[in-house]
User: What shape does this take?
Amino acid sequence: MTTAESGAAKWEETAGGQAGTPGALPFPPGFSWGASTAAYQVEGAADTGGRGRSIWDTFSHQPGNVRGGDTGDIACDFYHRYREDIELMASLGLNSYRFSFAWPRIQPGGRGPLNQAGLDFYRAMLDKLAEHGIAPTATVYHWDLPQELQDEGGWAVRDTAERFAEFAAILADQFGGQVTRWITLNEPQVSANNGYRTGAHAPGLRDNAAAAATTHHLLLGHGLAVRALRERVPEGTEIGITLDSHPVQVLGETQDNLELARQIIDANANGIFLEPLLDGRYPEHAEPYLLPPDSLIADGDLATIAQPIDFLGVNYYGSSYLRAGDPADLRQHEKRSRAALPPGVVEYLPPDLDRTPMGWLVDADGLYEHLLRLSKQSPGLALYITENGCAAEDYVTPEGVVVDSARIRYLHEHLDAVARASRDGANVAGYFVWSLLDNFEWGWGYQKRFGIVFVDFGTQRRIPKQSAHFYSSVVRANAVPPLPATWPRWSSHLG
Ligand code: BG6
Assistant: This one.
């Protein structure tokens, strides 16, 4: 018996069987089932095969930026191990895989000549996926801007949007026949906010004006890239974008100040990207310092940004809550908002919701509500959950298995929420767990394990966790089993 088989046997024995049980909630036929990764987080081989430097190489090598001084130099060594990792995906029954192209591996300077070894790597990887019938969902940009473009101002300058569209065109010309679904950008809000405003991510800037300009140029880059892809890829290929979703819920009775506060936070976190994309305008309620000045918005930009897309990628990790309260006299579980809100409103962390070890609220119902709301707002738009998952303090037992019960519960609850949303009318077409592998978790380095597959970074050995077997059973049944009336007592690490 292989490790994967004995792990699967253990999962069935401890968790009571497969997803094809009575009362299981089905997903629509043809549902896409996948796992997500991103180039800098898994590929490693940073100095191999002619790859250039990205802003994350620079940032992670500067002391103090990443926990433990970790870098993506080696990561999961996916560059050399993609064959076995794709076989692993196939063994779990996945029919889709979301990955990102590393811009500096393909066009090392962000403009100019292409790197043949980089092109060969992705072509071989795509061939391997095809061999296993796994549909590639490709992210064009998952945060690894070539350093040369950063040296010229990065996303704070308009030219980067043009360079990005050119890169998308290169990818379409090279791989258009092999990729099923294109995601232009991953979480542009995080690129602008963490990269240019708080400095927590590469390139580590703390500059509100640069962040607001970045917001516009990312959106413009998206619109130009959609156009470039659309002109080149075969008919039927899907094109969209992935946003980080931060649903905001109000607790208690409706009050004008609470509703206004909800609109402000929603506009700051969601609307600032969603409204230009879907409606061709920046949101009315966003705080002014977040918005690009009119001088940066050229005629026609908003129409370019609002190009029709085929789907919206939803990355969901939790919701936030507001209630009536006094920010100057906080009660337990209340917190003052960083946004400028009307008086009498506080953020609230409902104590009945679990937290992940990152401190994030576990809130599957928030995902249900969010999917229904999006489908109501944009009825024709397909929704893919392009990321959902949690970090946990996983370890390998002496028997060689990883019993990540808290993650199984997390996934079970969220998959149940997706199935319910689909049943109740949400236009959900697929789900990608974050992540396939434990990987380089940005500012957290290797301290946070998000994978359904454990990676021993010393040996690069992969061990599918119990959650991988649970996920696989759901994928194979295309249905999620009923939630248990009570959860087993987890050897939980939820804090
Ligand atoms: C998303 C990113 O923010 O969530 C992923 O697209 C990332 O790349 C994941 O790894 C986990 O969240 P965080 O906030 O720890 O990066």
Summary: Residues 38, 41, 186-187, 190, 244, 315, 387, 434, 441-442, 444, 450 surround 6-O-phosphono-beta-D-glucopyranose (CB under 6 Å). The two ends are 35 Å apart (CA to CA). The longest strand covers residues 238-245.
